[in-house]
Design a protein that fits this description.
- This protein has about 325 residues and is an alpha/beta fold.
- β6, α7 and β7 form a beta-alpha-beta unit.
- α1 packs antiparallel against α2 and α2 packs antiparallel against α3.
- The longest helix has 20 residues.
- The mean pLDDT is about 90.
- The structure holds guanosine-5'-triphosphate and magnesium ion.
Length: about 325
């Protein structure tokens, strides 16, 4: 037990003896955390209370007296697609989100820092991808609403901790918890059939803390030992190494294309692409622009980036490619 705890700490701690419900305990733990001075000597104590809060919260969600299915935490989608970060405590999910988006989620040197999902926008070239920072998942703990959040996302970015020699086993345990709830994971390029059960999500592993001692060996272990065959991208949220490549791989996970619309006689709007699913046709793109366009479409002209097509008149079933410029004629 670290020294220098203020007298209020001991007063509040006494109340724990009479606390009955998990919610009463949570309130007391939170008051305790608030009065504990934050420094190296108290990190473990604070981490312990945060873990207790997480456990107590899981208990409240299981109780029939509260809402039947517990709380949900839906995150409204925005941008080119939604990617949820999933990983063990302290693996650096929040710092990765912070570095990739320039936003400011809470980052700290103890587990269970992040408590609720929070969305942030990651710029990639001329589009934005929504990254959702989340609370940690462990072999023993996962928020009751977590699987629904993952099922609703467009893709998943697992975060592994390369400072941990057991990183593969720890991440396998996280993935197993989700598989038990009928969500499974496939590598980036996989076509997902429309069947909805079990849910399949494209996923990628950000192997974080590449700068930590032993990280190179731990990365090799992760490559060999992780049971689910997913691509692993070694990065460091601290030094920035590998992050540009990760940004691109996250965007590619979404399997979308950028299409620029063009008004006849004017320049293409390359600042504001439509992000549409790969394989989309001209008529489907017209529908995404405006339903009147789709109803009244006469023909379209397409300019493709590779230069293969230059203002070619195409029919409505023409399949579009990334960075095509499309002029819709009605
Ligand atoms: N050396 C090193 N430390 C890192 C790296 N990324 C994160 N950290 C540190 O790891 C600790 C945890 O980082 P967070 O981003 O809060 O981790 P988290 O996964 O969000 O943690 P929870 O919210 O508890 O699940 C912090 O002290 C970070 O500074 C990295 O690439 N290298
Ligand atoms: Mg966090």
């Amino acid at each position: 037990m670290p020294a220098n705890l203020p007298p209020e700490y001991h007063e509040i701690e006494k109340e724990l003896r009479t606390a009955r419900t998990p919610q009463e305990k949570i309130d007391i733990y939170e008051r305790l955390i608030a009065v504990i001075p934050h420094h190296k000597g108290t990190d473990k104590l604070i981490a312990m209370y945060r873990a207790k809060i997480a456990k107590a919260r899981e208990e409240t969600q299981r109780r029939p007296s509260t809402a039947k299915h517990g709380p949900t935490h839906k995150v409204e989608k925005s941008g080119a697609g939604q990617v949820v970060l999933v990983g063990p405590p302290n693996s650096g999910k929040s710092l990765l989100v912070k570095t990739l988006t320039g936003a400011d989620p809470e980052v700290a040197d103890y587990p269970f820092t992040t408590r609720l999902p929070s969305p942030f926008m990651m710029p990639y070239e001329n589009v934005k991808v929504q990254l959702v920072d989340t609370p940690p998942v462990t072999a023993d703990y996962m928020d009751s609403w977590f699987p629904e959040l993952v099922k609703a996302a467009d893709a998943v970015l697992f975060v592994a901790d390369l400072a941990d020699p057991d990183t593969a086993a720890v991440l396998d345990a996280v993935i197993r918890r989700l598989k038990d709830r009928k969500v499974d994971f496939v590598p980036a390029g996989t076509d997902i059939p429309p069947a909805r059960f079990p849910f399949l999500k494209r996923a990628l592993v950000a192997a974080n803390k590449l700068d930590a001692p032993g990280a190179a060996d731990n990365f090799e272990d992760l490559e060999v030992l992780l049971e689910t065959p997913l691509e692993k991208v070694p990065v460091s949220a601290v030094t920035g190494r590998g992050l540009e490549g990760l940004r691109r791989r996250i965007y590619e996970l979404l399997r979308v294309i950028r299409v620029y619309s063009k008004v006849p006689g004017k320049k293409a709007e390359t600042e504001a692409p439509f992000t549409l699913r790969r394989g989309i046709t001209v008529i489907e793109m017209a529908r995404a622009v405006h339903k009147d366009f789709a109803e009244n479409l006469a023909y379209a002209r397409v300019w493709s980036r590779g230069g293969g097509i230059e203002g070619l008149r195409v029919n409505r079933d023409h399949v579009l490619s990334d960075e095509d410029v499309v002029e819709l004629h009605i």
